[in-house]
Records
---
Amino acid sequence: MEVKDLIADHKSYVQALRREFHQHPELSFEEVETTKWIAKELDEIGIPYTINPDRGLGLVAEIKGEASQADEGKTITLRADIDGLPVKEETGLSYASKEEGKMHACGHDAHMAILLGAARMLWQVRDQIKGRVFLLFQPGEETGHGSNYMMSVGDWYKRTDAIFGGHVWIDLPVGKISVEAGERMAASDIFTITVEGKEGHGSQPQQTVDPIVIASAIVMNLQTIVSRNTNPLDSAVVTIGHIEAGSSWNIIPDKAVLGGTARYFKREQLDRIRGAMERIVTNTAAAFGGRARLDYEARVQPVINDVAMSALATKTVTHVLGKKALSLMTKVTAGEDFSAYMADKPACFAFIGIGNPKLDAVHGHHQADFKVDDSRLAEASAVYAQFAIDWLAS
Ligand code: NI
């Protein structure tokens, strides 16, 4: 029995499970019921697991292969994230969210269903597994801190030799999978800039230090980080998404606050971007006689796929679904906290196609009308399961 022969058997389980999860999203670091539910599904299969003792958030299950002696062989972890978003669903689907103001608008419901499908498949072919497979169900991905949280619980990460995960992706047609090597997703950092001036009447600017003018100059000067400080062959983004200052049309305030995000694909770009930002913020404010402070949080690292694992994943996808399923996809500027697992272990992150105009599955992730073509998720389950087997045998 081969994993790919199990796709048809588990197709309806994976799709139905995803729709059930979809109706009951929980927000980041509140996924207690979701964790219990995953545990119940694992109980039905017979796979042992450990729920995080901390707050009952997230769990790690373990399948011991029977193709090797106990404690022989390596360990690979397959990961799914499990949180929903504070979005009010507007899809009109029969299985839309039943939780007011919460929605699985990123597709993490699909990730749980895919991994539980893979769990079922792996359990059936455990005599083919050489070593062991951890199934990691991670809370809090949307905060960027969920992976670090999971790494701080138990010893599963220390015992893991490699890690594989994926994200359903709306821009990729259903049936396609991308597992390319190298840069795949951007770092996703957050910063706040606080500008301090001197308040006064709007008619007498000469008696003030106007923080709004300083903030405006900072916004413009920050544009040079990408245009003048970044290697044109690399990519980066510096976006200000938030400005707050003042309360009235005729008062110059004493403070302005800016907030934004920085994105880039090489870990070494962090120091350059943060350094340039620091310099521009401090010196622009000084040039206008004011002061400004940068608070920069290097939150999520870039997702960079290991070359050897990516090559193996390419073989796995070809074997399980045929060459036609493999799709080339450009890297994306979205972030993923899966990257934290990649810092010390070889890892590979896949994009799984869910786009389909016939089902109106065309709207972007995190949007209220986000829809998923979930008819072929079991194919992804088979890729996860077979990849674990292939990697352990390699
Ligand atoms: Ni996501």
Note: The mean pLDDT is 97.
---
Amino acid sequence: MTRRGVAVLGSTGSIGTTALRVLGRHADAFYVAALTAHSNAALLQEQAREFGPSFVGIVQNGAEDHREWRHGPSCLVEAATHQDASIVLNAVVGAAGLDATLAALSAGKRVALANKETLVMAGALVADACQRGGGEIVPVDSEHSAILQCITGRRGADVRRLVLTASGGPFRGWSRERLERATVADALRHPTWRMGRKITIDSATLANKALEVIEAHFLFGLPYDRIEVVVHPQSVVHSFVEFVDGSVLAQLGVPSMELPVLYALTHPGRIADTGVPPFDPVELSPLTFERVRHDDFPALRMGVQAGRMGGAAPAVFNAANEQAVSLFLEGRIQFGEIPRAIESALAAEGTAPSHSRDALLEADAAARRHVRELFAC
Ligand code: NDP
Ligand code: MG
């Protein structure tokens, strides 16, 4: 078997380190061609020593350190288009991953996409880059990996509806009054998944599920009224696909990102793996499902509404959310102010021009500015 080179962007994060664990177990099938990080030079150096990639890049670092590395934001695009990589695992957090996704797809590569924010902000541009360059996107997000695994080999016309599962986050049972004043520590205590800080907060507000509905819309081409969300606190059923005859398929597994990461590398094939925990339905039972409390978690509805509006609205939703989450994590705004910031930014900037990458980046910047001004930050 020819080994495929993988560029891991955001290698020092939660998904990045998971990916390197998976790649380390499958050195017969894959090798690490490139690594990039934002600030964690110590971990990046350790990873570079272990995996020996031909390219290492860091966004923020003194250029006098590690002269053999590439420095600055452009290292993401360099890694994403490196000749040794045929797969680009984009595990950068936030809008910063956009150019790398576009460049990899334009260069005809497979993008194993964890960085959902960039598909949300620029779904049409990403689809266009994919088509022109001959690249492909395979989702890493567990819900979308589940859907892909259920529909692979089937006719798109046979799919009636997608139902994404949501754990409900740490505040599933909390009253609206209590939610309003939830602390950063409360919000970072996710019941089923260990993830980076930004997505953990997104899971607490359910903004993450809005990003995922938009992501599913672009990945699978279904209209928004055929994509639904159900709360499933155990995070064992990773999503459902309903077909036109009423039959429903689901993909299940213990909550671990190792399987969706591996599947994004091997799709549509599979390879044997010993790292994914064994599945025991009795051990994992009971499995329960609940309706979403939309009135208490308004970010989900707002995000889906932004998706329906199209144009720059999803980019504005995403940027306002990123900015509000970072202010919340800095202790400058309350938890309940995150959805209010998104609503206000969408009202002010949601219909901004969206015809190009630059227009979308302008909408993104305007939304962030709007949120900072709203809270005088
Ligand atoms: P983390 O915060 O753990 O990691 C983010 C990675 O991106 C780090 O390597 C970080 O570098 C790097 N990074 C941060 N900012 C920038 C920037 N401006 N430019 C370049 N690189 C940057 O996040 P996660 O791994 O949790 O999430 C990554 C992506 O995957 C997100 O889009 C998230 O929504 C998605 N995802 C994550 C899941 C999970 O289980 N964690 C599940 C499904 C999707 P450094 O550490 O050096 O600063
Ligand atoms: Mg997910």
Note: The chain has two domains: 4-139, 158-309.
